[in-house]
Amino acid sequence: MSANASVKSVDELRAFSTYLKNLSQNLTNEFAIAQREMFRVNEGWNDEENIRFMQEFEQTVQVINRISEYMNEYGVFIQKKCDILDMYRNIHL
Q1: Where are the beta strands (DSSP E) in 20-73?
Q2: Under a CB-based contact definition with an 8 Å cutoff, are residues 38 and 57 in contact?
């Protein structure tokens, strides 16, 4: 951990980590549901505007999945830092 790192509350940091991981999972789940629904509703619909929307939506879902993955990874990183801070705090009590 960096020498200039400072944390006001490990509990708040841990809560933020959990929030990020949950948000990541929720985003992934909700957009997967939206994709399935879109494909279900659009079966046989060959309108050019709809095709363009579906292509853009697919690209957007890929970006959202990357962001979601990054949020989850950062949540895990924060959790590990919290564990280290807790060990440090327990040793120095």
Answers
A1: none
A2: yes
Query: What is the CA 33 to chain-centroid distance, rounded?
Result: 16
Please provide the distance, in angstroms rounded to a whole number, between the alpha carbons at the two ends of the chain. Answer: 19
* Rounded alpha-carbon distances, angstroms, from residue 44 to 36, 40, 92: 15, 9, 66
* pLDDT recorded at residue 90: 86
Q: What is the pLDDT of residues 38-58, one digit of tens each?
A: 888 888 887 899 889 999 999
The single-letter DSSP state of residue 20 is H
**CA 80 vs CA 13, 15, 17, 77: distances in Å:** 11, 13, 10, 5
